[in-house]
Amino acid sequence: MTVHLNLIAAACNNMGIGANGSLPWKLKKEMTFFTTMTRKTKDIDKKNVVLMGRRTWECIPKKYRPLSNRINMVLSSQILNCGDAAIVCNSISNALNIISKPPLKDQVENVWVIGGSSVYKAAMESPNFYRLYLTRIKEDFICDTFFPPIPSNFVLKQDENIPQGIQEEEGIHFVYEVYERETYA
């Protein structure tokens, strides 16, 4: 079984994704999009994995941890005890190995990488990378965490499952984009 990595992120004009351990914007529609995409499965008996770095895990308010109706996996080079809330892994390859074997093999439909910056970068470099779902927020925000550069061999794709065109909420404009690694014949 080949496990594909889907990445999902929102970034402002300067590719900022966070500030002081939080999102620099409050967009309910975008958060609903994130939740829907990372929860939605075709098979009702399966769940999706949300794969994140330790700092991303720690930035999720405790009342929302673990992210509900998803299998939470946390990448950390440190010893970390998340109890039953999340599976701790030390690398993307370690996480993929765990996902591709029982008992998770038969329980997982999709894997969503949800941050942070170094986890996104490693996922985009992985041969298991499949798609990047990027919400481009057409505003400037002060950020201290940034999405890594999108490789030049990633191309925009049409996806009828995501909202099309410019979205707007609270006077902030944003657009959903989908990228795939370009394949060479």
Compile the SSE list and pairings:
Elements: E1 5-11, E2 16-18, H1 28-39, E3 47-53, H2 54-59, E4 71-75, E5 87-89, H3 92-99, E6 108-115, H4 117-125, E7 129-137, E8 145-146, E9 154-157, E10 167-169, E11 172-181
Parallel strand pairs: 1-6, 1-7, 3-4, 3-6, 4-5
Antiparallel strand pairs: 2-8, 7-11, 9-11, 10-11
Descriptive report:
The longest helix has 12 residues, at 28-39. With 185 residues, this protein is α/β, with parallel strands linked by helices. Strands 1, 3, 4, 5, 6, 7, 9, 10 and 11 form a 9-stranded mixed sheet that branches. A two-stranded antiparallel ribbon has the order 2-8. A hairpin with a 2-residue loop joins strand 10 (167-169) and strand 11. It is globular, with a radius of gyration of 16 Å. It has helices at 28-39, 54-59, 92-99, 117-125, and strands at 5-11, 16-18, 47-53, 71-75, 87-89, 108-115, 129-137, 145-146, 154-157, 167-169, 172-181. It contains 4 helices and 11 strands.
